[in-house]
Amino acid sequence: MANSVTHYSFFIISAILASIFAFTKATNNSFSLDLIHRDSPNSPFYDPSLSYTKRMSNSFHRSFNRSKDFGSRSSSIVASNNGEYLMKFSLGTPPVHTLGVADTGSDLTWTQCLPCKHCFKQQPRLFNPKKSSTYKSLPCNSKKCHAPFSTSCNRTKRTCEYQVMYGDQSYSVGDLATETIRFGSSKNTQLSLKNTIIGCGHNNAGTFSGDKESGIVGLGGGKFSLISQMGSSIGGKFSYCLAPLSQHNHIPKSKIYFGTNAIVLGNKVVTTPLAKKSPATFYFLTLEGVSVGKKRLDFRKVSFSFGEGNIILDSGTVLTLFSPEIYVKLEAMVKEEIKLPTVTDPTGALSLCYKSLSVEKIPIITMHFKGADVKLGPLNTFVETSESSMCFAFAASYGVSIYGNIAQMNFLVGYDLKRRSISFKAADCSK
């Protein structure tokens, strides 16, 4: 192939940029949502004043911050609030349309509520629990009040309160309650989840993505996450397929699936177990090594920190991040395969960049997960950071290791919480 990788750069942006989840279809035990990336002209976050390089720089720095947040997690810290995806849903009866940051690194779903003692600015109207017939505060003696995040009893109201904090010092404090969550815009296609535990935030502040969202949608693996609360209704299964962009802002729709539609099938599916590790929120995998071409880097021989669950699968992080001791060896292996002069990354975030690359010069990089080898193509390993630079989409981080969403692009990634496994299958996610 003689095509330049710069031609492929048009396909890379989708996995880097974030998305809004828009409902498309529901059946008895499954439903799917469209994904629209965050910085597209169709997104409320679209900012035409930002240059491409600036958008890339912002997304890279969010990756590094998220890794540090994951690593500093305590019982009251729930990762980063700057996820790469947004989710549309309705809350309460009658339903109030809400937009939240969809986060595979958080459990509790919460939204800003009236009365608001201290809230960040948002465009959607605040949720008023007094106007919802299905809203119920949790009493202090409820078993559900005993959560892995911080909870306490309001002795005046005798209701359960929560407090969640993020690694960047953002926070939400309010009432734990049960409420009805709905996906879909019409009664015929609507899916309702009754008695779902949510946080009704009356005191919220921090560096949230902007004034378009109202809170967090928890898609983590803990028992209070939206995924876990869906439980048997979706069989503990969900999957997504992140589509790459094509030229001229044509935006193919990505998808996220829940229930029977989420099962990843086919001869070329590879599956790796989810590691049992704390906190249960995160999706821990075991990565045994990485190959660049035919040369393999065995983590067990080069890292003192190697062990089960050494990397987190996360759709909210752009880059794939390793400890410095791993990354420096991986970068050296890539340099051995691509014998070309390097250039400086204009975003200042990535360390291995080239002025131009042809597809045939980029080696296949294989991620050796436990029991599953995932082969990554050029779209998953190199990203255009400007009109004159292509950079390796992996980086060193002193936080935890994360398998980011560039590496997941054009793969159907299936989560099975019942069997505790993750499946990968190469796919054309634009179709």
UniProtKB/TrEMBL annotation:
Example GO BP: proteolysis
Entry's localization field: Secreted
GO CC list: extracellular region
Listed PROSITE patterns: PEPTIDASE_A1
Predominant location category: secreted
Keyword Nucleus: no
Membrane-spanning intervals of the chain: 5-23
Family membership noted in the UniProt record: Belongs to the peptidase A1 family.
Name of this protein: Aspartic proteinase CDR1-like
Lineage: Eukaryota, Viridiplantae, Streptophyta, Embryophyta, Tracheophyta
Recorded name of the encoding gene: LOC104212099
